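re: ur question from earlier - yeah i can do the single chain one, its not a big deal. heres the input i used so u can compare w yours
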Amino acid sequence: MTRLEDKVALITGGGSGIGSETAFLMASEGAKIAVADIDADSAHKTVERIRSNGGTAIAVVGDVTKAADCEAFVEATLRQYGSFSVLHNNAGVLERSALMDMSEELWDRLITVNLKSVFLMTRAAVPALARCGKQASIINVGSVLGLLGTGGNAAYTSAKGGVISLTRKLALELAPMNIRVNCYCPSTVDTAMAAGTIFKGDADGRLRREHAEVFPLRRFGSPRDIANLAVFLASDESSWMTGSVVVIDGGLCVQ
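and the output i got, formated as tokens:
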């Protein structure tokens, strides 16, 4: 499969969960990958998985909340591959807290990791994307929580709502540079982050079973479900899409 054979993709948070699966699938489709993550071991594991499947990948380690590290991610990708045309702003964290229980430090952390990092990483990448010689694609990760809002997630919901708005603004601003900007909004995806937050303490699996029944399709998303969409948004198949906010949620939002 070679839907992305002419692409180089920089994926933040690529060491685990959705990011890791997306990196693997994009590489399987022919893209060269830079796996960016704060966790060096996780980033290298993703790279090893890609290479063992015949793909091309490097690991770059740093913190997406620091402007210098975002610039270093871009520089390392350019140094290895010469150019790149896909930026996937995937890095994020989820911690649950009711508003009156939330510390200022937790609010700042969730806004910074989930929203400010998209600004920092995009700002660092735009000059390279604009001169890559082909149409470029930025893929941001929102959430259905940024569209609906639920209890216990005030900062995360605010951050993801911000990502959605930022996506639309950047789509307009970057279109003259031939850079597309889209966002997808998943609901619950079966990852380690979900296990450590939504299903924390669910030893007998009861909470998971009950939660799955909330969805019309009666299951959570898988990392591959989301990676399939990310590949489409990175590919030329979506070349007339920009500013789109794509919901991928097992039918949750239509109820």
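The chain has a mean pLDDT of 94. not sure if urs matches, ping me
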